[in-house]
Design brief:
There is one protein chain. With 416 residues, the chain is α/β, with parallel strands linked by helices. The chain has 3 domains: 111 residues, 3-Layer(aba) Sandwich (Oxidized Rhodanese, domain 1); 159 residues, Rhodanese-like domain (Oxidized Rhodanese, domain 1, 3-Layer(aba) Sandwich), CATH 3.40.250; 106 residues, 3-Layer(aba) Sandwich (Oxidized Rhodanese, domain 1), CATH 3.40.250.10. Helix content is 39%, strand content 14%. The protein has 20 helices and 15 strands. Helix 15 links the parallel strand 12 and strand 13.
Length: 416
Amino acid sequence: MDAARLYPTISAGELQQILHARNGEMALLDVREEGAFADGHILLASSLPLSQLDSGIALLVPRKATLIILCDDGVGLAQTAHQRLTALGYENVVILDGGMPGWTSDNHEIFAGVHVPTKALGLFAQRELSIPEISPNEYARLEEDGSRFLVLDCRPFSEYQRGTIPAALNSPGMETVHQMHGIEGGTHLVMSCAGRTRGLIAAQTLRDFGFQGNISALRGGTMSWALSGRAIRKDASQSWKPKCPAKAPGRDIVTSLAHRAQISILDAAACEQWKSDKSRTFYTFDIRQYAEYEAGHIPGARHVPGAQLIHAFDRFVGTRGARIVLSDDDGVRAAGTALWLRRMGWKDVGIIYISAFADLERGPSLPEGNPGGMAATPVSTAPDRPAMQAYLARSDDLLEKVARDGTLPLAAIAVN
C-alpha cells in the first residue's frame, strides 16, 4: 500500500507557503539525529531526534491539537515518529513528502549549524541598530594602552569555564542589566561570547535599558580571539560583581520598554486566561537564576535563563505562533528577554511579576535537574581551528540566505 495513504504528507511547496503565511500555530520537527540536523536543516525547524521524541515532545509541543510537520532524510524516521506521536494522542501530524531531499530538490534554502534564527537575529540587530563591535586586535590595544576596560563573558558559567579570553569575568546574559549601574564611569565595557550572537545581544540589551557608557561586543568572541593566535583561558571561575552594590533598573523602565515594544504586562487573571485557552499553545518560563527559581516560582513555569531562551529558542519552543509568558521578580530580565522575542517576530509575548501570585511552587524545574544548562562541566580540549573558521564564515552570507528564505520575520525594534 502507498505510504502516503498510511501517513498524511505535505509537499515542500505547501510547507513553504505555510511558513510564509504565519497563520495560526504549527510545529516543524526534524526527527533526524542532531549531527544530521546541524549539517543542514529548514530554517524554522526544531531538532527533536527520534531517539528523544517520547521524552521531549510534551515540553516542546505541549498542545496535542497543534499541526505538526515531520521532516527526515526520507528513509522512514518520520513514519516511525508519526506512529509514536499518534499513540501519544497528537491529532494533526503530517510528514514532509520526500524529507530533506525533497526540500532541496525543490530549490529551497537549507541552513547549517544550530540555533540559526537567533544567529540571524544578532546579525540583523547589529546591522539595523548599529551595535558597536571591537576586534581582538582593537581590544588588545586597549590592554596595551592601559585603558580602563571590563570584559564580561555573557554565557552560562559552564561555557565560560570551557574557554574564555584571559581578562573576562562571567556575567550571564540578562544578569548584567541588573547591575549595570555598578560599572564605573569611563570604563570601556566589552561583551564576549563564543562566537558573536550573544555578545551582540548582551551589548544591545544594556543599551535598551539606557546604559550610556562605552560598550562593544567582541567580534567573533573567543573563536576569533583563538584564531588571532592568542591564548584561551581554561577553567576560569570568576563571576563579576560590581565594587559598589548597584540598584537594578526600576519598574518605570520596564513599563516604558514593554509599551514601546508592544509586550503585554499580565496580572494573574490575564495569565490564567491565556493558559486556559485550549485553542492556543501556552509556554511559561521563569528566566531568573536557578536558585531564585527553586526558592519559589509561579505554578507550571519552566526554568530557562533569559539569555539561554533567546540563544536556543528552538530548543525550548517548538510551536510557532504560540503565546509565551516570562516571569520575573522585578521585570527587568523578563522585559529584556521579551524584547528580543519581539525582535524575532514573536507576537504574543507577555511578562508577569511573580508577586502577582499568592501561592508559589518550590523545587527543581525538571527531574533531570537544571534544564537551563547552568551546571559547570569544564572542558579542556584544544580548539578545533578549522571548525571555528567554518563557524565564523557561515555568518558572512547568513542574512542574505535568510532574506531569500523569507520565513523569519525579524524586526529592528528600537526602544531608546
